[in-house]
Amino acid sequence: METNEKILEVENLHVSFHTYAGEVKAVRGVDFELKRGETLAFVGESGCGKSVTAKSIMRLLKPPVAEIKPESRIICNGRDVMKMTGKELYAFRGDEISMIFQDPMTSLNPTMKVGKQIMESLMLHRNMNKKEAREEAVRMLKMVNIPGAEKRVDNYPHEMSGGMRQRVMIAMALACNPKILIADEPTTALDVTIQAQIMDLMRELKEKMNTAIILVTHDLGVVANFADRIQVMYAGQILERGTAKEIFYESRHPYTWALLSSVPKKGNESKEELYALKGTPPDLILPLNECPFASRCEYCMGICKEQNPMETSITDTHKVSCWLMHPKAPKVKSFYDREGR
Ligand SMILES: Nc1ncnc2c1ncn2[C@@H]1O[C@H](COP(=O)(O)OP(=O)(O)OP(=O)(O)O)[C@@H](O)[C@H]1O
Ligand code: SF4
Ligand SMILES: [Mg+2]
C-alpha cells in the first residue's frame, strides 16, 4: 500500500570516479523521491549509472576513487545520509535500507551456514538472543518459500541452487524489516522460470511488509506489472520518468522508444527480431554539453548537439528531457505510430 509519505529524497546527485584516464562523471544531477510502500524502477542500458545511483543512496561506494559530490542531497526518513558517520551508516544499512545484488555470492559468506548469517543480522539489528534469532531465521526462510526451511537453515550457500541462494539473500535483506529494499538486477543471473518466481516472491513480500522497493534493471520487460513508477536513465541522467502506464503506453522520449522496441511483443518471444540500438553511449570523461543521446538518436536536430534539453513536465508524474517536447519542434512519428502497439 502506497502512501504520500516520502521516505527517500535524492536531489542533484553527482557521482564521479577518479581514474588514471580522468574523472568519470557517472551520475550527473539525478533527482527523485520514493514514497512508503512504492516501487520505483531504474531502467537503462549497461553503464548508464543505475547501480552507482543505487549504491550512493547507501553510501556503499569507496572514496577516494568514488566521490559523491558535496552538492548532492540524500535524505532518508528525514535524516541526511551524506552527514552520517561510519557507525550511523552501519545501523542505517539494515535498519532502514538494504540491498540485494545480482550475484548472491557477493553478499553471502561462503564459509558460514545461511541461517547463521541471517541470525547475525537479527542479533545485531533487532537485539534478539540466539534462540529467538534462529526461530526468526527459519520463519524468514519459510517466508521466501524455501522448502524444508528447518533443515535448510543449516546449509552452506554452496549446498543451494542459484534461485535458492537468491531467496536467502532476499530473506537476509528483509530480516530487519527495512523500509527500503534496493534490488539490483535481482534475477539477471537466473533462468526464466526462476526469474518469474523471484519476481512473484518480491511482489508478495512488498504487499505483506509494505517495503518500498527500488528495482534496478536493464530490462523493461521485468518491470511491467511490478513497478509503480519508472525512471529511464542514460549516461548518468534521467531522460524520462513516469508511472508504469505512462512509460509503457505514453512515452515521449526516443531512448525510451528504443528500449520499448527491445521488449518482445506478447506472443512473439523470438529474440532474433529484437530491435538492436546502434552505437554506444557517450564517454563519461569528456564534457557533455549536448543531449547525451544525440549521437544515436534518429530524430536528432541542430539544437540537440548544442544544448542538453531541460526536463519538460507532461503531467505531475510524467517528465521528459528531449528537445522534441519544445512547442516549436517538428511532430514526429512515435514508437506507437510505427509499431502499431
Ligand atoms: N569503480 C569504478 N571506476 C571507474 N568507473 C566506474 C566504476 N564503477 C562504475 N564506473 C562507471 O560508472 C558508470 C555507471 O556504472 P553503473 O555500474 O552504475 O552502470 P549500470 O547502469 O548499473 O550498468 P549495468 O547494467 O552494467 O550494471 C559506467 O560508465 C562505469 O564505467
Ligand atoms: S533531445 Fe534531440 S537527440 Fe536528444 S533524444 Fe531528443 S530528439 Fe533525440
Ligand atoms: Mg549495475
From TrEMBL:
UniProt KW keywords: ATP-binding, Cell membrane, Membrane, Nucleotide-binding, Transport
Protein name (record): ABC transporter ATP-binding protein
Pfam families: ABC_tran, oligo_HPY
Entry-linked NCBIfam families: oligo_HPY
GO MF annotations in UniProt: ATP binding
Subcellular location: Cell membrane
Domain called ABC transporter: residue spans: 8-260
Membrane topology listed for this record: Peripheral membrane protein
Chief subcellular location: membrane
Organism domain of life: Bacteria
InterPro entries: AAA+_ATPase, ABC_Ni/Peptide_Import, ABC_transporter-like_ATP-bd, ABC_transporter-like_CS, Oligopep_ABC_C, P-loop_NTPase
Family that this chain belongs to: Belongs to the ABC transporter superfamily.
